[in-house]
Amino acid sequence: MVVHLLVPDENVSDAGAGTPQVGFVVSKAVGNSVQRNLVKRRLRAAAAGRLGMLPDSARAVVRALPPSAGASYGDLDRDLDSCLRRAVARATGDAAR
């Protein structure tokens, strides 16, 4: 799994204190439509519980890699948590997260 995170500058006019947004990219390399939708539903549920860890107005894109099709919900949950923590730490310059 790969996470790309954009945290808008505070000086930008539409960078108000909005809710973070998360989008998902699950390509055909992950599997057939049933497998892709299952991965997307699991990731969506896992991300919903982690919106609080993202800065306000942040936009994240989660790209599922082919091994995601065989991963359990717990594996996807842990992987997403790890990836989001790293992305937030890089975007905010905070190595402690």
UniProtKB/TrEMBL annotation:
Main enzyme class: hydrolase
Gene Ontology MF terms in the entry: 3'-tRNA processing endoribonuclease activity; ribonuclease P activity; tRNA binding
Gene Ontology CC, one term: ribonuclease P complex
InterPro entries recorded: Ribosomal_Su5_D2-typ_SF, Ribsml_uS5_D2-typ_fold_subgr, RNase_P
UniProt entry keywords in alphabetical sequence: Endonuclease, Hydrolase, Nuclease, RNA-binding, tRNA processing
EC number: 3.1.26.5
Protein name in the entry: Ribonuclease P protein component
Species of provenance: Promicromonospora citrea
